[in-house]
Amino acid sequence: MFNNVRYEDEEQNSSYRSYAHNVPIQFFGPSGTPAPDPSNKSKLTTRSWNSNAPKWRTAAGGLSLEAYCYNSSCQAYNKGYVLVKWGYRDFDFFLNDRDVGCPMCGRYVQTKNFGFCSTWYKVVGCKRDKPDEPLQHVDTEWDFVSNDRYYTFLDSPEDLVYWGQLKIKVSKSRPY
Ligand SMILES: [Zn+2]
């Protein structure tokens, strides 16, 4: 039941904090930062909408970010991933890391997966598929997913890749 997702068709543009003054945070482990691979369509998976999903698992159009909330006084604590409604804004996994807050308590949460609904998206960056493989550049074609389901990415340990840079571009209208 922790995987249930709700859908909310609302605009996500008004209340976002500006991140124009942030200094880029580049965190490179020995190989890169492990995360799912939104550039790989074979890792795409979907979930049906479920109106009984908890409030903290509500997705809207555009990009959603999945994360654990470690605030023990938060309603979503220890209840699986929360969904952060990032919306129709480009997301830089490193640069925007600090801008991601729990939808229930607002505290910083660390992005662990990505989800799409009713949006065009494109992935740009560089990654290693395995820690001992060379860095490869990623620059995908634009893709579209509808709002019939929630689209996300496999995130078992064997599905993760190692990112040096990762930007997810989203567009509500056809971008080309
Ligand atoms: Zn929280």
Question: What would you say this structure looks like, in words?
Answer:
The protein has about 180 residues and is mainly beta. It has one domain (about 25-170). Helix content is about 0%, strand content about 35%. The chain has no helices and 13 strands. The strands form 3 sheets. Strands 2, 7, 9, 10, 11 and 13 form a 6-stranded antiparallel beta sheet that branches. β9 and β10 (about 135-140) form a beta hairpin. The chain is globular, with a radius of gyration of 15 Å. The termini are far apart. Bound molecules: zinc ion (ZN). Zinc ion binds near residues 76, 102 and 107.
SSE order and pairing:
Blueprint (H helix, E strand, L loop, with lengths): L5 E2 L25 E3 L8 E4 L10 E2 L2 E6 L14 E6 L3 E2 L20 E5 L1 E10 L7 E4 L3 E3 L4 E4 L7 E11 L5
Parallel strand pairs: 1-4
Antiparallel strand pairs: 2-13, 3-12, 5-6, 5-8, 7-13, 8-12, 9-10, 9-11, 9-13
The structure holds zinc ion.
Organism: Ambispora leptoticha
Protein name: 7724_t:CDS:1
Brief descriptors of the model:
single chain; 176 residues; mainly beta; six-stranded antiparallel beta sheet; five-stranded antiparallel beta sheet; 35% strand; globular; binds zinc ion; 7724_t:CDS:1
